[in-house]
């Protein structure tokens, strides 16, 4: 990443302000490749069903009510910061939330369920309708007052959102979008461009409200061939990421499988990717296999130290390679975080 990268400018601003307030800015410094005393760590999907405190809130309200109520969304965002002592918070919401205005009748069970599969933006609301989900911004504003670690905002990549739309929700095999890309490439492009506009507006709303880092989740991008990814997905992702970086926000791009360059500040990689090779290309995040958190806490700590030690310098953010699993023992998540935080930098 070049020194002229605009993402660095805002990062430097936040770093300066945070130093004055004496709060934890390790994530911002690591993404910015500035010196760090230790590697920052957080956990993808760190607020969720593995935490008894989260389940207690969910017993009272359904998932969408939780997302739509800023005080509750802020509360469950804070839970893992308190319980695990992680170095970043991630807004509690879901990748499908910005599509609520356009897709009435969406429910969760536990993954998103749509009344019907959607393969075209025809007849749906224009991208600007995303402004109706302002409750997300209200949650961000509450969180910025409460937090002493950086706040990550997030969205789904257009391709991953399209995967759920084309399927009508969660599915066993996600072939719907790939079928559409072959059956009617023009319509696939139209759907993806509509989602690109929604995503950019939505992420900019979060930044304006106070999100300091953006992570884009492309959970299904790795399912595509290189040429399909390059043709259908990469240009839109590059436009979204370039626009956010111009606004001065560091962007982490998460995908499963191979690391594909889309101009991000940092790449979040899964456990099938060689971490040292990924780090050689630029700032990197990852890539502990969430299944290791099912070993005993001492083994978890040993394996966490083994992952972090060779990379213990700036430009690296420790995390899992994908979201934490709902059955994960809390003490193993805590052992992971603590082991990373106790590993000194080189
Ligand atoms: O029953 C419940 O309480 C709902 C379970 C749940 C939760 C806790 C869902 C439904 N979403 C979430 C929160 C969520 N989703 C966060 C919260 C912030 C955090 O703590 O990290 C985030 C970042 C997401 C993002 C998300 N949702 C992704 C991308 C990341 C990934 O893991 O790949 C995806 C693919 C989704 C879709 C989704 N939403 C919910 C579920 C169970 C799923 C997966 C469904 C499926 O693929 O079948």
Features:
seven-stranded parallel β-sheet, 9 strands, 13 helices, binds coproporphyrinogen I, two-stranded antiparallel ribbon, 11% strand, TIM Barrel, 346 residues, single chain, alpha/beta
The portion of residues assigned to helices is 40-55%
Shape: globular
The run of helices and strands is HHHHHEEEHEHHHEHEEHEHEH
Using the coordinates above, name the CATH class. Answer: Alpha Beta
| Strand order in the sheet with the most strands | 1-4-5-6-7-8-9
* Major sheet description: 7 strands, parallel
First CA to last CA: what distance? 21 Å
How many E-type strands? 9
Would you write up a description of this structure?
The chain is α/β, with parallel strands linked by helices and 346 residues long. It has one domain (8-342): TIM Barrel (Alpha-Beta Barrel). Helix content is 46%, strand content 11%. The protein has 13 helices and 9 strands. The protein has helices at residues 6-21, 26-31, 52-60, 63-68, 70-84, 135-146, 158-167, 176-183, 185-209, 226-246, 275-281, 297-308, 330-341; strands at 89-90, 107-108, 112-113, 151-156, 213-218, 251-255, 266-269, 284-288, 316-320. It has a 7-stranded parallel sheet with strand order 1-4-5-6-7-8-9. Strands 2-3 form a two-stranded antiparallel ribbon. The radius of gyration is 19 Å and the shape is globular. The chain starts with 5 loop residues before the first helix and ends in a 5-residue tail after the last helix. The mean pLDDT is 94. It binds coproporphyrinogen I.
